[in-house]
Amino acid sequence: MTYSSKILQTVLRRHWVVTFILLAPIVFTAIFAGVIAPHNPLQTGVGPALMPPSFKYLMGTDQAGGDIFSQVVYGCQVALYVAIWSTLIALAIAILVGLPTGYYRGAIDEILMRSADVILSIPSFVLIIFVVVVFGSLIGVITLIIGLVSWPTLARIVRAEVLSIREREFVLAAKAVGAGSRNIMFDEILPNIWLPLLPAITLQMGFSVLIEVGLSFLGLGDPNTSSWGRILWFASRSIYLGAWWGVVLPGLSIVVTILGFNLAGDALSKYVNPRESRR
Amino acid sequence: MGLSHYIAKRAVFSVVVVFVVAILSFTIIRLAPGDPATLLAGEAASPDYVQAIRAEYGLDQPLPVQLVTYLSDLARGNLGYSLTFSRPVINVILERLPQTILLVGTALCFAIVVGVLMGITSAKNPNSLEDGILTAVTLTLYSIPVFWLGLVMIMGLALWIPIFPTGGLFDVGVQLNPPQFILNVGWHLVLPALTLSAFFLATYARLTRAGLLEAMGMNYVVQARAKGVRQRDVLYHHALKNALLPIITVAGIQIGLIVGGVVLTESVYSWPGIGSLLIMAVSYRDYPLVTGIFLITAISVAISNLAADIIIGLVDPRIRTGAG
Fold this sequence. Notes:
The structure holds two protein chains of two kinds.
Chain A: H1 3-13, H2 15-31, H3 33-36, H4 68-104, H5 106-121, H6 124-135, H7 139-165, H8 169-176, H9 181-189, H10 194-217, H11 228-235, H12 245-272, H13 274-277
Helix pairs in contact in A: 2-4, 2-12, 4-5, 4-7, 4-10, 5-7, 6-7, 7-10, 8-9, 10-11, 10-12, 11-12
Chain B: H1 3-31, H2 36-41, H3 47-56, H4 63-75, E1 81-82, E2 87-88, H5 89-124, H6 129-143, H7 146-160, H8 178-216, H9 219-226, H10 231-269, H11 274-283, H12 287-315, H13 317-321
Antiparallel strand pairs in B: 1-2
């Protein structure tokens, strides 16, 4: 192994470090957006239109004279809001579906898991567009619908874990002392499935951001939020005028965030599945 | 369980999926705030037209009757009437479908070939410099939003270094004979297909690498090596065959996922397929067209899934016999 490859390997193995370096600034920026952003992200005419990046406008201005840096800063809040809430919604449904299907098996398992398969086979992005167009582009609606279509993957993992844990001795012991099914599911089994779920949860967070950003890029985002996709939607019209900054700089923040979530997922799955990491 | 039983089971599942999508469309339109007749007729419609729509869809009837009318219309291929195009929805969609199939087909083929080759290169020398670089590249490709990649490609390879066109299916207003026309379309296809394939290429590369590394540790591979079969032959003849199975499965599952990528790619490159049609339908609030596209994409995805299931059933006897 050459020296440079050793360095690269070390960096890649230090997933945690890379994840932290990528995601920490995003979280920090989201929390302190009000302090960091020099302007209101939704305000137009802050400066002249289509100014290239400068000390006054760190990421330049868009065609309406809005400050792109302030938009990107507030975009961190939108991304994290969508990532966290839609994943929590998906996770709640996944647990409510996955626990009983894995625990009771039989008919309820068959029905719920077939429904999960059906939902996985529906072109979800088109469904999300359809729902958002009919019910309005509120960030809450967008987050809810992303959560509602995303639970099946998580539910499958929950079910698989429940199937293996329900055979363990401590579950048998709980049954022996007369614990009810609901107690066993929520108090005995649930606390033991978090770890294997973590990689899927982080990957889902990245995926949720991708969907929201895609929607906003099509002009279907919440007009009252400064989503990164919305910035790109505006900027994409100005690329023919040579205004590259509106596309390149906000786009990089999306890539950094999603790469952060994906690396976290990789790191977690290696932690959970040590056999993988020895390869 | 024989192969035909297996295929029949998967076919029934596909029909159920399409049926669920039809019910979903029906429900969403009726749950919408406001009057569904006004919604379907369009915002600028005259009261007479709204009345005509109400009668045609039976919107003054009770809901179960509406559902039956709707489903029997669908069964006869009647997806409604598009106001934007003043033509039946089904005709508008079928006109756009070939362009989308061309784009998706090209992108998928490219992604599978290049992705598998990258995976093999990685797995040949795991933890080497090549492997490290390829892992980093695939992880990054995996995290790039498809439309951003498209915009960057347009800026780089169409505006800054003008090698490729910025969008469209072919050059409008230029006289082209058939061979020139095919070349022209191919030239317009390069950037959209590359853009769409990036995410899937990364997925296949990762899958191939993981599959090969797992297969290389299996007893049959170890035995082949012990018998003195060359490393190369073991990799290509023994391990790769088994490592490729999950790729077919995942490719089938991902057809649903690829729809989102198609919508965004077509929108970035003004590629005249179903995806850009959907965006047009949305901006005109042409609901019959939107629901029609939802249904047709669902049917296309169901058919592709079924095709992948059948291929898997043919290649992997464990699936159709229910073992393993």
